[in-house]
Amino acid sequence: MIRRRSKFERTNTVPLRPEPARGILEGSVRKLVGIPGYFVGRLRRTQTVQATTAEATAAQRIERVSIVENDLGPIRSTLRFFRRWPVLSSFILTGMIVMAVFAPLITAGDPEKANLRHRTYPPFFQDSAADATQIEKGREEANYFLGTDQLGRDLWSRLAYGARISLAVAAVSLVSGIVIGTALGLIAGYYGGIIDELITRFVDVWLGLPFILIALVIALVMGTSFITVFILLGLLAWTPFVRQVRAEVLSLKYREYVFSAQIAGSSTTRILVRHLLPGVINTVIVIATFRIGQLILVEAFLSFLGAGIPPPTPAWGAMISDGRGYLRDAWWISVFPGLAIFLTVASMSFFGDWLRDRLDPRLRQVD
Amino acid sequence: MAKFIIRRFFTSFLALIASTIVVFLISRVISDPAVLLLPMEGYGMDPVEFEKMKDALHLNDNVVVQYSYWIGGIAKGDWGDDLATRQPIAPKLKEKWWPTAQLALSAFILATVIGIPLGIFSAVKRGTYLDIGGRSFAVLGQSLPTFWLGIVGIFIFAVQLGWLPSGTMGEGFFLNKNLIMPTVVLAWLPMAGYMRLVRSAMLDVLDSEYIKLARSKGVSQRSVIWKHGFRNAILAPLTFAGVLLAGLITGSIAVETVFAWPGIARWAVEAVFSNNLTVLGAVTLVFTFAFIALNFIVDILYAFVDPRLRLT
Q1: Looking at residue A36, what is its pLDDT?
Q2: ipTM
Q3: Which residues contact B129 (CB under 8 A, 6 or more apart)?
Q4: Do B143 and A218 touch (CB under 8 A)?
Q5: CA A364 from chain center: how many Å?
Q6: Which of A212, A324, A348 lies nearest to residue B250, judging by beta carbons?
Q7: CA of A116 to nearest chain B CA: how many angstroms apart?
Q8: Residue B76 burial by CB count (10 A; 0-12/13-18/19+): exposed, middle or buried?
Q9: Nearest Cα to A285, choosing from A355, A366, A353?
Q10: Which domains, from first to last, does chain B contain?
Q11: Cβ separation of B277 and A220 shorter than 8 Å?
Q12: Which A-chain residues 216-235 have CB contacts (< 8 A) with chain B?
């Protein structure tokens, strides 16, 4: 008999069913809450409570309450595995990296070779109304998996080689951002005072600048090249590291082991590198996973605006820009690179969430 | 309170000065801007004329003098000349800032009106399909490139379905068809940001002691959420207003480019292709002004809402 006592009392005090002696009572924890002498906390959904009774009928004489993990069925345990480990996102990320590294092996054509006769071929799953025989012939000749762009360049090759550019640019600028940001954060946090004030204020001013426009100014003055893009993204990458590392160092620097190192006569550099750096490394890794996604997005936007890697080198953002004028006839030119960006960034963010929970629960914004 | 405002004003002012210096240095020091004024190779320019032009733009003086000319002009309302058309920048700036502001304002309203309630419901109904839906929505917003979203929006709603115009600004203030797509595209990212921030703040608040007390007193669920929870959870996103504003500025560059919106952001992007450094510098500075001023206002508001902050 379930009796609800008030609107807010969600526990049901249920008399335990008579069980055979030393038998096991199974059920949700709510059934056991009413038993005097036992408090059982919240259970995960996959757990149940077992109570061993001392006597056949008296629920009050339960000897032991234990929580057992349930044996889930194959479907539910698979689902749980997927929820607990970043399976999908690491799969996609690995795929992207493989695509970038082995681009020459997995693609048939040169990504920069134009062939105007093979212009705007649709991807393999779409039938084109226009001049079907011509397209069939072209497909047999060159095997365009995802179709071709407005200049007849193989979209799949461009996508794969574009992954190289996007990932490499983001990774290199991320590394420079990590180095600069972590160093400044360590210094600001450890020295404090006027140095801290200067660095923090500088970061504030930096964040207030409209980065994209500044990047356009620099690209305009320096000209577009690989180097320019690296510098631009490097300028963007470092700020969050300073803030988080600084906050982290502030809490670490009054620890006993830092005092011991100071008393033992360690140099400041040694304290920063050997004693404080290891303490912030998890935070840095976690921020890096979030930052790289943003860098990929910004790189794409810059190349979309024409301030990125100069053509004809394939870059995802520039490919989206290429297809803008052909939306009506060839939607795939713009859509596929965008999907590639989205998949990469979204997987990065899921992977980052997982990594944060693993490495640095303090950064967690309750999820 | 007055002390807080004065101090905050002072730091904002410093940030403003610092940012003008940064903008100036970037545009003048990395390489000689005079080179950009030269026409394409093969078409010569009279060296005498070139020197005259450099003189007129004060490019022969040293950096400090150049800076004082530039900043002095801006203080007097003279933003310099557009290098491409040789027209003064100020009147065009006056004409073009409003479309950008209108777009940003409508996107901000949309993001607030949808993002905050979504975050709250997501926290209250944690773990349900509503929560999962809301979070996926936020992840989409944070990982879809804004410019691509705009292009796909044009492809679906303008090219395929023909429901909405593909670009340019329409007549009327808020309720016009041209505004719908740019607003939604621009609002998505801040909406996702709001949703995530409000959700995590709300989860924190709902876990706190005073909520448990309110519940055990028998306060109704609605009252717990909206009176006790919401009021405290709403403070967190305010601290992130700066980041959201920066996102809105970057986003407006993307959206104005994709939708051919006649605002200052698109003007700046066009200026890049005509080597128009003065326009680019002016627009950059306007955005920086706007960012610092809005941040100042948000901070003051925040101090009004949360008395704890006035002391620090």
Answers
A1: 41
A2: 0.82
A3: none
A4: no
A5: 14
A6: A212
A7: 24
A8: exposed
A9: A355
A10: 1-90+277-312 (no CATH), 98-262 (1.10.3720.10)
A11: yes
A12: 216-222
CA distance, residue B283 to nearest chain A CA (Å): 8
> pLDDT band for position A7 (50/70/90)?
very low
A306–B contact, CB cutoff 8 A: yes
Smallest Cβ–Cβ distance between A208 and the set B257, B269, B288 belongs to B288
What is the DSSP code (8-state) at residue A18? P
Count of Cβ atoms closer than 10 Å to residue B218 Cβ: 9
Span of A43-47, B5-9, B131-135, B245-249 with lowest mean pLDDT: A43-47
Highest mean pLDDT: which of A26-40, A128-142, A148-162, A275-289?
A275-289
Evaluate whether B98 touches B92 at the Cβ level (below 8 Å): no
A347: which residues sit within 8 A by CB, 6+ positions away?
A88, A89, A90, A92, A93, A96
Q: Which of A8, A199, A209, A344 to mutate to test the interface with B (most CBs of B within 10 A)?
A: A209
How distant is the Cα of B280 from the closest Cα of chain A, in angstroms?
Answer: 7
pLDDT per residue over A157-213, tens digit each? Answer: 888 888 888 888 889 999 999 999 999 999 998 988 889 888 988 888 788 778 888
User: CA-CA distance, B140 to A182, in Å (whole number)?
Assistant: 29
Q: Which residues of A touch B143 (CB under 8 A)?
A: 293, 297, 341-342, 345-346, 348-349
Q: What is the pLDDT of residues A106-146, one digit of tens each?
A: 777 777 777 776 666 777 666 655 555 555 655 555 566 67
Contacts of A216 in chain B (CB under 8 A): 268-269, 272, 280
- Name every chain A residue with its beta carbon within 8 A of the beta carbon of B139: 346, 349-350
User: Is A315 in contact with A166 (CB distance < 8 Å)?
Assistant: yes
Name the phi and psi angles at A148, rounded to 5. -130, 165
